[in-house]
Amino acid sequence: MPFKKLHSHLLDCLAHQSIETPTPFQKSSIPIIKSGSNVFCFAAEGSGKTTTLILTTLQKLKCEAVGNAPRAIILVENKTKVLELYDAFIPYTQYSTLRIYASYEQLHIDVQKSEIYMGIDILITTPKTLQKLFLTNGVSISELKICSIDDAEFLSKKSDATSLIVMAESIKKCQFVIYAEKSHPQLNRLENHFMEHSKLVQK
């Protein structure tokens, strides 16, 4: 069964990459994420979690640039993960107006602030860098529609989890989607903060 009810730009991108059929995880998770619910997504490596994250993020933003403040934030563990995910987005954004920005601790904060100020749609960063940007007025979260955490096992580190929780408390209305291979106690505790009434997809 082919992908259904996705933006025509995304269907074109999938066809260009000869991706015709969703994985079992994608078939289960994409409709639930599209519904706007907070979602925990647990599935093994190779199940299509990263492609799901990309497709649902771009679907949420209708594959077009709007305004200057980011409408999607994706949190990952470190610079390596930031750059890997940035590269994974390129086949889906290079022929659109969407502006995607890679942010990490090793890049001077003033450089990041000035480049973000020029206008972005998607921010890929780490919890600590996002908190630093926010506390120095380097990024606005007023237009945020979706926040995803990829390979969220790294949130077992208390400092990363704390940075995320602090940021989430400042976000008034936003969908959160957490991707990991399996649950762990630190992820479960997020239900007490910003993942209340969340749904679960597990494959």
TrEMBL record:
Record flagged with keyword Cell wall biogenesis/degradation: no
Domain Helicase ATP-binding: from-to ranges: 30-167
InterPro entries reported for this sequence: DEAD/DEAH_box_helicase_dom, Helicase_ATP-bd, P-loop_NTPase
Domain of life: Bacteria
Key words of the record: ATP-binding, Helicase, Hydrolase, Nucleotide-binding
GO molecular function: ATP binding; helicase activity; hydrolase activity; nucleic acid binding
PANTHER family on file: DEAD-BOX ATP-DEPENDENT RNA HELICASE 50 (PTHR47960)
Protein's UniProt name: DEAD/DEAH box helicase
Provenance organism: Kriegella aquimaris
Lineage summary: Bacteria, Pseudomonadati, Bacteroidota, Flavobacteriia, Flavobacteriales
